[in-house]
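your task:
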Amino acid sequence: MGYVDPVGVKPGEVLRVHLTAPAAYEIAVARLGRSVLLGPEPDDEADRAEAEWLARLESATACRHDVYPGSYARVDDEAIGRPCTVSAWVRVWRLPATVETSSWAGIVSDMDYPDRCNWALGIDADGHPGCYLGDGGQHDRVWWCFASSSLLSRLGEWVHIAFTVDGTRVQLWVDGDMAGEGVAADAGTATPRPGAGSVRIGAAAESGLADHFLDGDVSDVALFSRRLSRHEVVALTEDRAMSAAMPVARASLFARWPLRERSGSRAADVSGNGRDCVLVNTPALSIPGPSASRAIGRPGYDPDGDPTRGGSIRFASDDLIDCGWPAAAEVTIPHDAVSGTYYVRVTLAGARAEPLEIPFVVVRPVPRRRGAVALLYATFTWTAYARRSADGVSIPGLMSSAYTRNASGRLYFNLGMRMPLPRAVPYLHRTHLRDATMHQHLVRPERLAEAWLAHEGYAYECITDADLDADPGLLERFSALMIVGHNEYWTQQMRDGVDAYLRGGGGVLSLSGNTAFWRVSYDPELKLIETRKTTHPGEGVGVGWLPPDEWGERWHTDGLPGGKWSYLGQAPSEILGLETLGWIDSGDKTAFAPFRVRAPSHFLMQHPEPVPLQNGNLIGTRSHDGPAISGYEMDGLPQAQGMPALDAEGLTVLAHADHGPRFVAHWGADVGYGADLIYWDRPAGGRVFNGGVTNYTGALAVDPGIQALTRNVLHHMGVIR
């Protein structure tokens, strides 16, 4: 397995190749070929043979690296010792697995099983809350105290759990009621051990490594130097972690972590003792706490104005945003490297298995020729989709995507880019459902667009989503922007940048479907994409996203809500003219359709060259990405799904595709309504040509009508050949 960093690299910069390899290996770096892609039929073997090799490196030894998933918070301070009371709110989503040695998860602990076991508050594999009060040495089950009742029927509900210690007497409390009694090791005879004083929230340790991870949300963890009374424990339960100030025993606090963080990498200790925690493996922040209403998060809701929101942090046993593997190779990209699609091939010595193939992009945000078009690679969408198993093997920590769930069954909010993307491959040319349609929505659409632009002799440069997010103003250097394939995930900076470019008179060719559908945010230092999707009543699909009673979780760490741009008051059609209509992924040929031309006399259909039509009025009847141009995911006019229509001034529907009742999901009033192909001379400024389908570049490779139409559009937008 492996990954590259960065995915988009400039000439003169260093590309780092990170691997875990079980044997000696060869790394080879190549620029992908372009001419074979435009042949009459797809030929993956000939495509591979066309690669231009730039560098080869060999390693005579293996480089084995593991992954260490699991999020938690940690502070090291031996002065904490053993608290006399520990209190925490927890919402458990998944019970720990039953294993041979010790089956429990840590809510908050100073515990390194089996040799340095001080204290812990946790939950066992049967759902029983429990606490451990040992002597700091070898684990001994006698020091555990478990509640007789289980939380199995209360998964997904907030529960207050605490323990109090008076000498050797231990009491365990659940929601203000004493749930168990036990015995603690005599604190006076406990022997401090090296490593003691490492407090973890959401985990414990085993043999020096973080382990016993909690799959759940934690709020308002407090450690006290004295035993709290029943009345005080009940007061904490009744407060539901809502009060900013600790409602009881403030003078006795060792530490208090409210866990209300909305961003950052630390959890603040508000006791005044300076015991802030470091957050490891990026748990999900900005989660409402025990006191929050499940009705929050509707349009107009302001988290800062809600005194009952509280807060919590979501920990998961398989959270991971960065494998942290050392670079197996570093390759400096030549200063004269041509902008385009490249890849790293890793071949194991003596192996019969297929080599590992990892695509990357050489980007040039500053064009070398005037009149160039910027070709945008949908690398955020690659990350959202591609970290799903390609061989049926699921590896904890390496399954995070926008379409999978973590071990607790919750959505992944954080998607790291310094990790393998097994479904983002340079050559694979088949759908993930069937081979019949020879369809691929990641990487290949960009390759087809690049190949065609190069073949036609156009001035172009490649950029990635991350480049556009970092510097939206780069578009001003280009005559046009070309969006291709499946560019579904957009940041605010991307959206605002494209809008500003158009308002300034720029031109956009959107040869993409499902474009700018979800809002994401991006952290360029962590190489982290954050996405928090929402389900809306009446949609009929997408029920896997956050339902309305969980919309309080949709606020990103940048302080803005996530979800569909159209529901955030910034509809994609406002800048690009179309909205996502639906998707078809049945894997058979009838799921695809050509465009029927509706405006044959429009200047883009006639000048500078007439667009050839098939059967009188069809274009897009041929494609290398499915048998016809319209399929998989497609966009249409906003009024097709009941949204307000755009100002008709300057807007022309050049062509339309009809599919009939073939959609897996469709949000239009007419279930057969397919993609629209439009030209929009926007009243707000700028010109947009929108093809509305993910498969456009597949047709661009081989369909004469689509090729001629696209040449006409580029001509009128001032792109030079």
